[in-house]
């Protein structure tokens, strides 16, 4: 049982801890016994201070709750909600059975919607979100700075060894010390190089106030714009519906200073951005965000995507029916259509229906609506559908930890109960 439940991802955090310990502490053991150039006192202090900052920030990046969407949260802008439904930009998560705030996504690992989800980091076993992003940035910063400082110390010792390479071996370091120095130098160099690239990318996203998922969405939007230029500004969605594709500006870039301040927890104190014990962003935030006003305030992000619009309901027979005096005819019809669709999927043994890749749909000559959907169970896997689209870096949504079935196929219009509740509230307002 233990072997069957074990997953290699559980080794991620212990591996990172082992790497930090190896570089921070075995290096000091090496320097202490390297007679040609032992560490000076201020160098020992710097190494251990950097190591302490790394430990604190990494611990907080791993343990701080990435947040969740309150069950009773409701969008305040009803007009925007109606526009989202009309354009296929769903704000309802069927997994959580709750409204989904702007910039939130359903994490497949955490199994809930995460506010301002950036990605699920395997090395922290936690989501990088609105609440954990500042700790994650500080961890990367201190890791890069600390290991860069260690790199200079290792390079100085390696230079001494190289300069004395012609001396007798008994006058220099032992073979064990040479091997230790070589391993430290290689491991530290590779690690700081990879973390530096990740830090630069993270700081770029911080300055632009974009998450990695939103960067993917921006590139996806550019791809849809290029496709639409060849078809008069329109692309075809499920059931043959034509969707107009027009350029939409990213709404959350509010200026580099405001972007950094918002990303680092909302504080204008620059020193707090670097302080390892800085507080986590207020738990009452993360559901609404300031916009730049380039687009109409009722227009939400991401832009319309024909391949992320729910499939149209099929015709229903008399075998499924619903009646109730408390509902309108539209509600009854919507309920019957959805129930019939669920029943049809259960009988077919399908969880989702995937749209074929764009280039495959273009190659098909059939004009039937069914030609845009898979003909049976998902035998070819998720790479078969349009959710397999990758950006220029070869990334797809699932690489960020997002539940692709939710993002592409499993979000529908508002459930019947919510529609009834909203109509009842509107009726009460009219009576008042």
UniProtKB/TrEMBL annotation:
The keyword Transmembrane applies. It comes from the Eukaryota. GO terms for molecular function: protein-cysteine S-palmitoyltransferase activity. The DHHC domain is required for palmitoyltransferase activity. Belongs to the DHHC palmitoyltransferase family. PFA4 subfamily. InterPro entries: Palmitoyltrfase_DHHC (IPR001594), PFA4 (IPR033682), PFA4/ZDH16/20/ERF2-like (IPR039859). The chain crosses the membrane at residues 12-31, 43-61, 139-158, 178-200. This is Palmitoyltransferase PFA4. The keyword Repeat does not apply. Its main location: endoplasmic reticulum. Residues 377-396 have a biased composition (Basic and acidic residues). Its EC number is 2.3.1.225. Keywords: Acyltransferase, Endoplasmic reticulum, Lipoprotein, Membrane, Palmitate, Transferase, Transmembrane, Transmembrane helix. The active site is at 121 (s-palmitoyl cysteine intermediate). GO terms for cellular component: endoplasmic reticulum membrane. It catalyses: L-cysteinyl-[protein] + hexadecanoyl-CoA = S-hexadecanoyl-L-cysteinyl-[protein] + CoA. Residues 88-217 form the Palmitoyltransferase DHHC domain. Residues 359-396 are annotated as: Disordered. It is found in: Endoplasmic reticulum membrane; Membrane. It holds the Pfam family DHHC. PANTHER family: PALMITOYLTRANSFERASE ZDHHC16. The gene is PFA4. It is a multi-pass membrane protein. Mediates the reversible addition of palmitate to target proteins, thereby regulating their membrane association and biological function.
